[in-house]
């Protein structure tokens, strides 16, 4: 029997695995939430597929997305990252990642953990949508607008509403699997 997936995930095995194992599944640990914040911020203006192909390179370059280490990166480390052909070499995004690691820890101090803060925007439980077509899946919502605005107020960078909605999908805050998908 053929497994039926959301149409966007049929490109290759990398996409299928991501779709089946991660996308739309709730994530509550701060480490994985931060990883997706980094990946989604680098994705801005690019395809998610490009980021997925480079995910392991990002993981290595950013020391397993260790936000405590990233928050203290020096200019030398920024230059090292700028010379790393395995990642997206965008200085503003690299600097934003360092900034966001610092802001991430500030939110942790305020709320106990980042997960508690971010999941509060959806009352602690996933929003389950039932789109019939990819065209019914929005790029932003009122919630992603509000969360993005709050993050901006907290001085996070490269986390506009579209990036945040993609993050919400990636971390299962919202489930946009199509009604015919085996993961719905």
UniProtKB/TrEMBL annotation:
Domain of life: Bacteria
Record's signal peptide: none
Listed GO MF terms: DNA-3-methyladenine glycosylase activity; metal ion binding
Example GO biological process: base-excision repair
Keywords assigned by UniProt, alphabetized: Metal-binding, Zinc
One Pfam family per UniProt: Adenine_glyco
InterPro entries recorded: Adenine_glyco, DNA-3mA_glycosylase, DNA_glycosylase, Tag
Binding positions (Zn(2+)): 6, 19, 177, 181
Protein name, per record: DNA-3-methyladenine glycosylase
Species in which this protein is naturally found: Kaistella jeonii
């Amino acid at each position: 029997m053929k497994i039926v997936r959301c149409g966007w995930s049929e490109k290759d095995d990398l996409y299928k695995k991501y779709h089946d194992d991660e996308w739309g599944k709730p994530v509550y640990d701060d480490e994985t939430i931060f990883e997706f914040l980094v990946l989604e911020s680098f994705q801005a203006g690019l395809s998610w597929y490009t980021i997925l192909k480079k995910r392991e390179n990002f993981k290595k370059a950013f020391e397993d997305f260790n936000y405590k280490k990233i928050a203290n990166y020096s200019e030398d480390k920024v230059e090292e990252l700028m010379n790393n052909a395995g990642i997206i070499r965008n200085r503003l995004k690299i600097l934003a990642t360092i900034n966001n690691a610092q802001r991430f820890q500030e939110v942790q101090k305020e709320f106990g953990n980042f997960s508690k803060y971010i999941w509060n925007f959806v009352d602690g439980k996933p929003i389950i949508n039932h789109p019939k077509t990819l065209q019914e899946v929005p790029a932003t919502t009122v919630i992603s607008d509000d969360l993005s605005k709050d993050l901006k107020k907290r001085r996070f960078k490269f986390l506009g509403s579209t990036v945040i909605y993609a993050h919400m999908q990636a971390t299962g805050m919202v489930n946009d699997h199509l009604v015919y998908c085996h993961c719905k």
